[in-house]
Design brief:
With 483 residues, the protein is mainly beta. 3% of the residues lie in helices and 40% in strands. The chain contains one helix and 48 strands. The strands form five sheets. The chain has a 16-stranded parallel β-sheet, with no helix packed on it.
């Protein structure tokens, strides 16, 4: 999608978000904590100013209608326990609104907001537990700096759901810089725009997270899913154009499942994938700047360097990379490609292990660096068409490992600047290694550490069309295997 169309979509979006049809005049009610009441229940009508039910009102918790802090409400954890609808909701000054009176153990309530919901200011949050069809149902939702919307799906009440429906307006979820959407559950974008339109704009942080029971313990698996009912819905995961401030984080054992198109907004923010995490994209996507970082140490307390943990995964639809950087940061980190990738630009820094379960091409414009003990595991077709690619490493240790399994094909199309002296362990378990160079007529398995192991009871292949393959290192073929 062109930048012009992208900008048009954003301009339309801003206009719709700020020109929602006016609601009928609603009364203003402010949480005053009854002057310091022990009860934080919304059903205690003395907690409101003026006293009474907040049904149908513009509700302010922690702040008043002009944005000033309400001292008595500072850091109050208020408990929504009413079957009512309110006109709007604004939360600030470190206060919380929670849709359960017992942290989701036995009850939850639907916070139904006809108009806009806004949360912002350090420590301010809206906390949603599962159970109801929607824990929060609102027209528009804005998470400003310091504010959080937290979805908790770990209790017996089940999946936490936030619905942004656009009944009276655009139906947008906007996350400002410094704002956070975090947890596990489901975001339902239910507006029906008549043209492609960004219903979710992320200038802040989206984090898939289930806290572990104890520090260092592996967290339970969880999923934060983002869905939309309209084919015109779009997700500006990188925020407004040209700013590239959006952040995504998928914590240990979590999945961020994005079922909304990001067409028109190539990734350019900061994405961090942790141990055993998954980014699952339903629709094709692209990356033109920013970073993807894989950090996957084993769970548990660590003294010294950690052990490797389960790989982070990128799954779902095919994607392209024209810029930006992919980092597998340390020897214990790993990143698994479960979706096809075509990279024509950008930087790849592999200090750990990259696992390819889908076809991947790294074109001539990619700066692909194998660092220190870097390894590859190839279970699909991987083309590395980078002239100066060095399979061994750029750190001088030159003792990484490449494993090519049955059905895997590693095709190295090299050129000027490539290291054609392989001091590398290459395990062939029914896979194929192809090596060609536009700048040389031979390549060498070096005696100083170069090893080929053919195993797995399968037939493995080394091809060097038009090249001479010189063997100074070791070649081992196990019983019932063929090379």
């Amino acid at each position: 999608m062109s930048r012009h169309l992208f900008r048009s979509m954003m301009i339309v979006g801003i206009g719709l978000a700020s020109t929602s049809p006016p609601l009928a005049e609603a009364a203003i009610v402010v949480w005053d904590d009854d002057g310091g009441s022990a009860s934080k229940l919304w059903s205690n009508f003395n907690n409101w100013n003026p006293n009474g039910s907040p049904a149908g009102d513009d509700v302010y918790v922690g702040v008043n209608s002009v944005g000033a802090n309400v001292a008595a409400a500072t850091n109050d954890r208020t408990l929504f326990n009413l079957g009512i609808t309110i006109a709007s909701l604004t939360v600030g000054n470190g206060a919380d609104v929670v849709n359960s009176t017992d942290d989701g153990a036995t009850n939850d309530f639907e916070i139904a907001v006809i108009g806009n919901t806004v949360v912002g200011g350090a420590g301010s949050s809206i906390i949603i537990y599962g159970g109801d069809t929607d824990g929060l149902d609102t027209d528009n939702l804005t998470i400003n700096s310091g504010g959080s919307v937290i979805l908790n799906s770990t209790t017996p009440q089940g999946t936490a759901v936030v619905e942004i429906d656009g009944t009276t307006g655009a139906g947008q979820l906007g996350i400002s810089e410094g704002g956070t959407l975090i947890g596990t559950g489901r975001i339902d974008l239910e507006a029906a725009p008549g043209m492609p339109f960004f219903l979710l704009v992320n200038n802040g942080s989206i984090i898939a997270d289930t806290p572990p029971a104890f520090i260092g313990q592996a967290p339970a698996a969880g999923t934060l899913q983002i869905t939309a009912t309209s084919a015109n819905a779009r997700f500006a995961w990188n925020g407004f154009p040209f700013f590239a401030v959006g952040n995504l984080r998928v914590n240990g054992n979590q999945t961020l499942d994005v079922d909304v198109s990001t067409s028109g907004d190539a990734w350019g923010g900061d994405m961090n994938l942790s141990t055993g995490s998954t980014l699952d994209m339903r629709d094709a996507w692209s990356m033109d700047s920013g970073t993807i970082n894989a950090n996957t140490p084993a769970f548990g307390f660590v003294i010294g360097d950690p052990n490797p943990g389960p790989a982070a995964r990128i799954a779902g639809a095919a994607w392209t990379m024209t810029g930006g950087t992919i980092n597998v940061d340390d020897s214990w980190d790993s990143l698994r490609f479960d979706s096809p990738l075509t990279a024509t630009g950008g930087v790849v820094n592999n200090s750990g292990t990259m696992i390819f379960n889908a076809d991947v091409t790294f074109g001539a414009g990619v700066d692909f660096n194998m660092i220190d003990f870097a390894s590859l595991v190839v279970n699909a077709t991987v083309n590395i068409d980078v002239a100066d690619f060095d399979l061994d490493s750029i750190g001088g240790t030159e003792n990484g490992t490449t494993t090519i399994n049955a059905g895997g094909n590693l095709d190295l199309d090299l050129g000027v600047g490539a290291d054609l002296d392989f001091r590398h362990t290459i395990n062939l378990n029914g896979g194929e290694l192809d090596v060609t160079s536009s700048a040389a007529t031979s390549w060498t398995l070096n005696f100083g550490g170069g090893i080929i192991n053919a195993a797995g009871g399968a037939t493995s292949t080394v091809n060097s069309a038009g090249e001479t393959f010189l063997i100074d290192g070791d070649v081992n073929v196990t019983a019932n295997s063929t090379l």
